[in-house]
Each structure stands twice: as structure tokens, then as C-alpha cells.
Amino acid sequence: MPSLHIEFYSDVLRIDTGIEVIYPQNCTRTPEPLRDVIKPPFPVLYLLHGIMRDQTGWIRFTNVEQYVMDMGLVVVMPTTGRGHYINQPHGYRYFDYITQELPKVIGNMFQVSQKREDTFIAGLSMGGYGALHAAALCPDQYAAAASLSGVVDIGVMYESKELYSDAERLMTFDNKDPRGGENDLVVEFQNAVKAGKKLPKMVCAVGNQDFLHDYNIAFYNKVKDLTDIELWTEDGDHTWDFWDRNIKRVLQWLPIKQRLDDYKPQFVVK
After folding, report:
1. Residue 116: helix, strand or coil by DSSP?
2. pLDDT of residue 268
3. Measured between alpha carbons, how far is 203 from 136 in angstroms, rounded to an integer?
């Protein structure tokens, strides 16, 4: 199936930026039971990276392309640098780029569905926060959101001297602890529910040995009564091995209507 690297100018970011795209291909290698099912407009998954990688990480370090081969799913992997997928007070409008501009760009380039029921978002670490952040603030846009080893307590990033420089702390957080503020996930979930919004179905996956494990457990306990959210835990750390296993699981969890649930592949191309 086609795997594309695309560069384009972002009006929101006011800079050239790149995306990786995995696009479905209905061809002679497509299993016959799926040929009448995999057709446009395609559902789309926006897949977000962590703080130390870019849009190529998912392609380079996981088998995501193989996992979606017979799903008829477009996977879009953008980059936002180290910006935490928020509108930075002294930097870039990454949230607006991910949730507003990028879907329009993808819609103009590819045959993707514009329906909420066909639109999903997921990410790892910083990208896990980004996925839940987008889902909480734009619940009418996504049917499902998944966080893998997510930084669900954004204050962890603010406090980290190893991950954030003083300049980044100013640019991204205005030198203010974001806990309890507009970018706090718990506050966002509460505000959405108060406004009568229907939040997407969600899942948080975290390894038992991950340094973010306890934060994910605490977050889940705070929001589990606010929305349809699952918690997946298993042995694993903050590693690509864990993310590879769990993105495969997430892909099967997504409510993709085009997929034949009773289809069982007869072979796997190595």
C-alpha cells in the first residue's frame, strides 16, 4: 500500500511542514473478501508522535503499515516538534493546526470521510496527551481517541528539567504550572460534560514499568465517570515495543465500519 511523505505550507504555523501518510490500496493483493468493502471515502486516523521524535517515528519503529494493510484506513502522521499539541502562548498554534487546518488539507488531498464516525486520533507519550486534548476540546470531530503511555498530567512536562529548557517552558507554558488551567485534561473533560458534549470513546494504555504509570491510573480514576474510557495495563515500559503491541490493539479497537469483522487473513506477508 502507498506510504507517502508530503511537504506543504501551513498557513496556521506559517512554515513548511511534513506529514507521513499511509493510504489504502485496493489491488490484486487485496484479499478478495475485502475488495468490495475497502473503498472511499476512507476512515482516517491521526497518529501523533512523542516529544523526542517526529512524524516518521511510527513508520520507522513500529509495524503500523502492516497492521492497517487490510483495513481501508488512512493514517496521517503529522509533526509539531516539542510543542505538546497546544496553542503555545509564545509560540505556534499547534492545536489549531492539528484539529482545524490539517483535516482540511487531508480532505483536499485524499478521499477521506469527513464524518465524525470515521475520524479517530491517537498518540504516544506527548502525543497521547495531544490525542485526548483534541478529543476533549473537539468532541464533535472524533469518534475515538487513544493514548499510549500518555503524559496525561501535563504538569509533569512543565516540571521536568530534563525534557524542557527554560525557553521552552516560557514558550509553551508561559512559565505557569498548567495544572488546573485550560490545558489540564481533567478540566477539559469536566468542561465538555458540563457543556453537554458527547465525548468520544477513549482508551489509555500504559505499561506497569512506565514512569507515567501512576499518573495514568490517577487520571483514569478522575475521568472514568465522565465518559466511555478504558484503561489497559500490562508489563511494559516507555518503549517502542510497548507502543507497537498496543497500536495494533488500538487499531482493532477502533469502530471502523468498513472492516469485515469476520474476515480472518489466511497469511501474513513478512
Report:
1. helix
2. 43
3. 13
Domain 3-253 has CATH 3.40.50.720: no
**Helices in 102-177 by DSSP H: which ranges?**
102-109, 126-137, 155-159, 166-173
Ranges of each domain in the chain: 3-253
C-alpha cell at 222: 478522575
Quick check: 143 and 255 in contact, CB under 8 A? yes
Whole-number Å distance between alpha carbons of 212 and 214 = 6
The DSSP H or E segment spanning 5 is strand 3-10
| Residue position matching grid coordinates 512559565 | 175
Question: What is the distance between the alpha carbons of residues 214 and 5, in angstroms, rounded to a whole number?
Answer: 36
Q: Is 245 in contact with 185 (CB distance < 8 Å)?
A: no
Q: pLDDT, tens digit, for every residue of 204-260?
A: 999 999 999 999 999 999 999 999 999 999 999 999 999 999 999 999 999 986 555
HSE on the CB side for 241, CA within 13 Å? 7
List of the chain residues with pLDDT < 70: 28, 257-270
Using CA atoms, how far residue 254 sits from 44, 200, 202, in Å, is 11, 11, 10
Nearest CA to 185 out of 222, 157, 238 is that of 222
pLDDT in the model for residue 29: 72
CA distance 200 to 192: 11
